[in-house]
Amino acid sequence: xxxxxxxxxxxxxxxxxxxxxxxxxxxxxxxxxxxxxxxxxxxxxxxxxxxxxxxxxxxxxxxxxxxxxxxxxxxxxxxxxxxxxxxxxxxxxxxxxxxxxxxxxxxxxxxxxxxxxxxxxxxxxxxxxxx
Length: 131
What we know:
Elements: H1 16-30, H2 39-45, H3 50-58, H4 64-80, H5 90-96, H6 102-113, H7 117-124
Organism: Pseudonocardia xinjiangensis
InterPro entries: AraC_XylS_family_regulators, Homeodomain-like_sf, HTH_AraC, HTH_AraC-typ_CS
Domain HTH araC/xylS-type: 22-123
Protein backbone atom coordinates (compact mmCIF):
# COMPACT_ATOMS: atom_id res chain seq x y z
CA UNK A 1 0.00 0.00 0.00
CA UNK A 2 1.31 3.42 -0.90
CA UNK A 3 0.75 6.31 1.49
CA UNK A 4 0.34 9.38 -0.71
CA UNK A 5 0.70 12.59 1.27
CA UNK A 6 -1.44 11.13 4.05
CA UNK A 7 -0.65 11.43 7.71
CA UNK A 8 -3.40 9.52 9.49
CA UNK A 9 -4.01 9.97 13.19
CA UNK A 10 -2.85 6.75 14.78
CA UNK A 11 -3.51 6.25 18.46
CA UNK A 12 -0.82 4.45 20.44
CA UNK A 13 -1.03 0.73 19.82
CA UNK A 14 -3.10 0.97 16.65
CA UNK A 15 -2.33 -1.72 14.15
CA UNK A 16 -2.22 -1.55 10.37
CA UNK A 17 -5.93 -2.33 10.09
CA UNK A 18 -6.73 0.70 12.27
CA UNK A 19 -4.48 2.88 10.14
CA UNK A 20 -6.15 1.65 6.94
CA UNK A 21 -9.62 2.24 8.39
CA UNK A 22 -8.63 5.76 9.43
CA UNK A 23 -7.30 6.45 5.95
CA UNK A 24 -10.52 5.19 4.37
CA UNK A 25 -12.67 7.32 6.68
CA UNK A 26 -10.52 10.38 5.95
CA UNK A 27 -10.77 9.68 2.23
CA UNK A 28 -14.58 9.49 2.51
CA UNK A 29 -14.78 12.85 4.26
CA UNK A 30 -12.40 14.53 1.82
CA UNK A 31 -14.20 13.23 -1.28
CA UNK A 32 -17.86 13.66 -0.29
CA UNK A 33 -18.82 15.60 -3.45
CA UNK A 34 -17.71 12.71 -5.66
CA UNK A 35 -20.96 10.92 -6.59
CA UNK A 36 -18.92 7.98 -7.90
CA UNK A 37 -17.48 7.31 -4.46
CA UNK A 38 -19.08 4.02 -3.53
CA UNK A 39 -17.89 1.04 -1.53
CA UNK A 40 -16.33 -0.58 -4.60
CA UNK A 41 -14.46 2.58 -5.51
CA UNK A 42 -13.31 3.16 -1.92
CA UNK A 43 -11.96 -0.40 -1.75
CA UNK A 44 -10.23 -0.04 -5.13
CA UNK A 45 -8.61 3.27 -4.14
CA UNK A 46 -7.18 1.63 -1.01
CA UNK A 47 -6.16 -1.62 -2.69
CA UNK A 48 -8.44 -3.87 -0.66
CA UNK A 49 -11.39 -6.07 -1.56
CA UNK A 50 -14.95 -4.90 -0.98
CA UNK A 51 -15.30 -7.68 1.58
CA UNK A 52 -12.24 -6.41 3.46
CA UNK A 53 -13.64 -2.87 3.43
CA UNK A 54 -16.78 -4.18 5.12
CA UNK A 55 -14.68 -6.04 7.68
CA UNK A 56 -12.73 -2.87 8.46
CA UNK A 57 -15.85 -0.75 8.95
CA UNK A 58 -17.37 -3.42 11.20
CA UNK A 59 -14.70 -2.33 13.71
CA UNK A 60 -16.63 0.93 14.18
CA UNK A 61 -20.06 -0.69 14.01
CA UNK A 62 -21.13 0.39 10.54
CA UNK A 63 -20.72 -0.36 6.86
CA UNK A 64 -18.69 1.67 4.36
CA UNK A 65 -21.87 2.83 2.60
CA UNK A 66 -23.61 3.81 5.81
CA UNK A 67 -20.54 5.74 6.96
CA UNK A 68 -20.35 7.63 3.67
CA UNK A 69 -24.08 8.41 3.75
CA UNK A 70 -23.80 9.64 7.35
CA UNK A 71 -20.89 11.93 6.46
CA UNK A 72 -22.79 13.32 3.47
CA UNK A 73 -25.83 14.03 5.62
CA UNK A 74 -23.72 15.69 8.32
CA UNK A 75 -22.14 17.92 5.65
CA UNK A 76 -25.61 18.77 4.34
CA UNK A 77 -26.81 19.67 7.83
CA UNK A 78 -23.84 21.99 8.27
CA UNK A 79 -24.60 23.78 4.99
CA UNK A 80 -28.34 23.99 5.69
CA UNK A 81 -27.79 25.52 9.13
CA UNK A 82 -25.25 28.10 7.95
CA UNK A 83 -26.74 31.48 6.96
CA UNK A 84 -23.83 32.04 4.57
CA UNK A 85 -25.38 29.29 2.44
CA UNK A 86 -29.00 30.35 2.87
CA UNK A 87 -29.16 31.36 -0.79
CA UNK A 88 -28.12 27.93 -2.08
CA UNK A 89 -30.69 25.77 -3.78
CA UNK A 90 -31.30 22.29 -2.41
CA UNK A 91 -30.13 20.74 -5.70
CA UNK A 92 -26.80 22.61 -5.35
CA UNK A 93 -26.40 21.32 -1.81
CA UNK A 94 -27.21 17.79 -2.96
CA UNK A 95 -24.47 17.99 -5.58
CA UNK A 96 -22.01 19.54 -3.13
CA UNK A 97 -22.35 16.60 -0.73
CA UNK A 98 -22.30 13.85 -3.36
CA UNK A 99 -25.91 13.03 -4.20
CA UNK A 100 -26.62 12.62 -7.91
CA UNK A 101 -30.21 13.80 -7.73
CA UNK A 102 -32.38 15.89 -5.46
CA UNK A 103 -35.09 13.28 -4.90
CA UNK A 104 -32.64 10.74 -3.51
CA UNK A 105 -31.09 13.42 -1.31
CA UNK A 106 -34.49 14.51 0.02
CA UNK A 107 -35.62 10.94 0.71
CA UNK A 108 -32.36 9.97 2.43
CA UNK A 109 -32.37 13.14 4.53
CA UNK A 110 -36.00 12.65 5.59
CA UNK A 111 -35.35 9.03 6.59
CA UNK A 112 -32.34 10.01 8.68
CA UNK A 113 -33.61 13.20 10.30
CA UNK A 114 -37.38 12.83 10.18
CA UNK A 115 -37.85 16.20 8.51
CA UNK A 116 -37.58 17.83 5.12
CA UNK A 117 -34.55 19.76 3.97
CA UNK A 118 -36.45 23.05 4.15
CA UNK A 119 -37.75 22.15 7.61
CA UNK A 120 -34.22 21.43 8.83
CA UNK A 121 -33.01 24.71 7.38
CA UNK A 122 -35.77 26.72 9.09
CA UNK A 123 -35.30 24.99 12.42
CA UNK A 124 -31.50 25.04 12.56
CA UNK A 125 -30.48 28.15 10.69
CA UNK A 126 -27.91 29.82 12.90
CA UNK A 127 -28.27 33.55 13.24
CA UNK A 128 -25.58 36.09 13.83
CA UNK A 129 -22.94 34.77 11.43
CA UNK A 130 -21.62 37.20 8.88
CA UNK A 131 -21.84 36.18 5.24
